[in-house]
Design goal:
heterodimer; A: Rossmann fold; 22 helices; 50% helix; elongated; B: 241 residues; alpha/beta; Rossmann fold; 4-stranded parallel beta sheet
């Protein structure tokens, strides 16, 4: 499996559009999750109030992040947790590899974590000779298929039942079946053995509560509960932005996150982990290590507009709502985080140079902002990033730059504006038939936008009489 | 009420009947209409593509032209361009002088259907149109200006018209300005969902509040040889069967 990059977004998207199975799977899944989210949100009368509260909690956290992080660390340490700070992905991976090696560990179970996808932790662990097994069903499927997640909370959203059956037949040796329960039971049975033999469990973190030093992780399959309780060592990886001030804040976010993500009123499991077991006779891991990751987040924190990117709670609602994501899915973005929030976060994490297409991969329809439980103004962020891209002149955009300079001249001059219309009217004579402009393949070099537009749509020609001409000849006299 | 019409560059050049209809409807409800023929564009294409300097040049021109009139309101037959005018203060966020001027202009700029219903409190403008029709919520009007009930109220009062809701009326048509030419294949894939919904609705016409969406939808319908026509809400409201 060769993984796609953001640099070839346009080609990736075209390939995705040609994939009939993918588009069918996406259409079903995104519309189902969209409907469930709407119904779940409608079930709470104070949905808007909750969104506002969640956002103001996040804004407060981001303004005082240093204080809340220190409080979180101090409280968790007092209960026996150990902390490690990682500036970037490679530091995080090195810390984790060393922790495991120092304990003579080799077998690792992992629960679903976008943050460890971001750091490509599995690659690092395997390079260090360790065996890693993803234990979330979707992630497990993806790992068997040697692919990457295509959705933040539904990693295998792009796969059909049939594709999964074929995968299990070839990788796990079961007879082909379209019985979902059988497929799930097969994965469950295989994973139970992996849990039992694992030396270390690695998880992400949904929320870190400063007031109590508690980590909260939500899930539906019970695999996180096992990952964080069976092995003797638990390593949790969290971004610096995941901290919440008070335990009571959990109430707000537990109402918003499951409803926005899967349309559930609550996830099946909520694991609250506060340090390690306090008595040797208790159950649970002997050690808890928390790796706190920056990896570009403090850059986002620095600017008042980009700061809101860090309010994201990774619910995935914006992916399901996005008309672009609905058509092309997650892999086309060529980034760990796909969809609208991915198009915002990725360029900030890895730089604009290789990701300059992503902020443009949006019609700016605003559906993402409408569903976001923490009211991130994603269109505003996309526009901000677009302006950074043009100002930094990332990639060769000379013809576009020239076109907009010319456009600004035309739009600030009466004379040029009228003349441009006249010139257009003069030249369009060659291409207007039956009152419309049809397919203009040959315009590709002369006027690429015209060729692109007419590839699938007819174009209205410039009017014989513009409105301003009609104003003077037909309308003005009435006044 | 004295209204200054911002017709938009798109309507001026490509769809003059939308402008003519807007004038007719506004006059019918008792407004006096001005048109300053120095107006060009609201600056949106540059702003949305990331060319803020160019957007500011055109934005300043827009402000100057509309400051010079004495109209009570600036009305435009476009939710998208009206929304851009409301974004102008943000475009001048580091220039207090222009930001102030932008805010004064934005405060009295309205999209046509919301102006009729919210400001003039009129939902019956005496229109009649025989046929079955549906409404497409253009994104910027819907999500930036919260225009949803206003056009539906206006349409419900059109004599002879049978209104049906479109499936996913509030989902994007895939236009998105430069998006439609940067990623034409994605734009068309999104558009075809809209076209399917329109075909299912079995209507004679699709109405919307933005000429840009209607060019996208109409261009595809025309390419597919469909008999369904696209009509701007100003055209519908101006019609008298």
């Amino acid at each position: 499996m060769n993984h796609l990059t953001s640099e070839t977004f346009d080609d990736n998207a075209r390939a995705a559009l040609d994939d009939v199975q993918l588009r069918g799977a996406l259409r079903n899944a995104t519309s189902l999750f969209g409907k469930r989210r709407l119904a779940a949100a409608a079930g709470l009368q104070n949905w808007e109030e909750l969104r506002n509260r969640a956002r103001s909690i996040k804004d407060d956290v981001l303004l005082h992040l240093d204080q809340y992080l220190e409080q979180f660390v101090a409280n968790a340490e007092s209960r026996g947790a150990k902390f490690h700070w990682a500036r970037d992905a490679s530091e995080a991976n090195a810390i984790i590899c060393k922790l495991i090696q120092d304990r003579g560990g080799r077998k690792i179970v992992k629960s679903k974590s976008m943050t460890t996808e971001e750091t490509h932790l599995n690659v690092a662990l395997e390079a260090a000779g360790m065996q890693v097994v993803e234990t979330d069903l979707g992630e497990y499927i993806i790992q068997l298929a040697e692919e990457t997640p295509s959705h933040i909370i539904v990693p295998a959203i792009h796969k059909t039942k049939r594709q999964i059956s074929e995968l299990f037949t070839s990788e796990l040796g079961i007879p082909p079946t379209d019985d979902v329960d059988k497929l799930t039971a097969t994965a469950r049975a295989t994973l139970r053995d992996r849990f039992a033999e694992a030396d270390v469990g690695i998880s992400g973190v949904n929320f870190g509560i400063a007031e109590t030093g508690t980590i909260l992780i939500v899930e539906n399959e019970g695999n996180i509960r096992l990952t964080t309780s069976l092995p003797r060592t638990h390593i949790a990886v969290m971004g610096i932005e995941k901290v919440l001030p008070r335990f009571a804040d959990v109430d707000v976010f537990l109402k918003l996150l499951p409803r926005s993500g899967t349309g559930q009123r609550l996830t099946t499991y909520q694991s609250f982990i506060t340090g390690v077991k306090q008595n040797a006779a208790d159950e649970g891991p002997d050690e808890l290590h928390v790796v706190i990751l920056d990896n570009g987040r403090s850059r986002m924190l620095a600017h008042p507009i980009t700061r809101q990117s860090l309010a994201c709670i990774r619910c995935g609602a914006c992916l399901n709502a996005c008309p672009v994501y609905q058509q092309i899915g997650g892999h086309a973005y060529g980034s760990v985080y796909p969809g609208p929030i991915g198009a915002v976060i990725t360029p900030q994490l890895v730089g604009l140079k290789k990701t300059a297409q992503l902020p443009y991969a949006s019609s700016l329809c605003g559906a993402c902002r409408e569903v976001c439980p923490v009211k991130i103004d994603i269109p505003q962020l996309l526009l901000h990033l677009r302006s950074e891209i043009t100002e930094a002149s990332v990639n060769k955009r000379r013809s576009e730059q020239f076109a907009f300079k010319l456009w600004a001249r035309v739009m600030t001059s009466n004379w040029l504006y009228r003349m441009s219309g006249e010139v257009g009217r003069l030249f369009q004579r060659f291409v207007v038939h039956n009152g419309k402009i049809g397919k203009l393949e040959k315009a590709g070099i002369l006027a690429p936008p015209l060729a692109a537009w007419t590839s699938g749509r007819d174009l209205r020609p410039i009017e014989k009489k513009t409105f301003r001409e009609r104003w003077h000849s037909e309308l003005k006299r009435h006044d | 009420m004295l209204v200054s019409l911002f017709v938009t560059c798109l309507v001026d050049q490509l769809w003059s009947s939308v402008g003519v209809s807007s004038v007719e409807v506004l006059r019918r409800v008792g407004c006096e209409v001005q048109f300053d023929d120095r107006q060009t564009c609201c600056s949106q294409p540059a702003f949305n593509t990331g060319y803020r300097d160019e957007a500011r040049q055109v934005g300043r021109r827009f402000i100057e032209v509309f400051e010079s009139g004495n109209a009570d309101a600036i009305v435009t037959p476009s939710g998208s361009c009206a929304a851009m005018v409301h974004h102008l203060p943000e475009l001048f966020s580091s220039d207090e002088h222009w930001q102030k001027r932008a805010r004064l202009i934005a405060d009295r700029t309205f999209e046509l259907s919301s102006f009729l219903v919210r400001v003039l409190n009129r939902d019956d403008v005496g229109a009649s149109w025989p046929g079955r029709l549906t409404w497409h919520d253009a994104c910027h009007g819907l999500r930036d200006l919260n225009i949803k009930t206003e056009p539906r109220r206006l349409i419900s009062k059109v004599r002879g018209a049978e209104f049906v809701e479109l499936d996913n009326a509030d989902s994007c048509c895939g236009f998105g300005g430069t998006f439609s030419v940067k990623y034409p294949e994605i734009s068309l894939a999104i558009l075809d969902q809209k076209i399917e919904a329109i075909e299912r609705a079995k209507v004679d016409a699709v109405i919307s509040g933005d000429a840009s969406c209607l060019m996208q939808i109409g261009g595809r319908l025309s390419r597919k040889g469909s008999k369904v026509r696209v009509m701007h809400i100003a055209e519908l409201l101006a019609s008298k069967a």
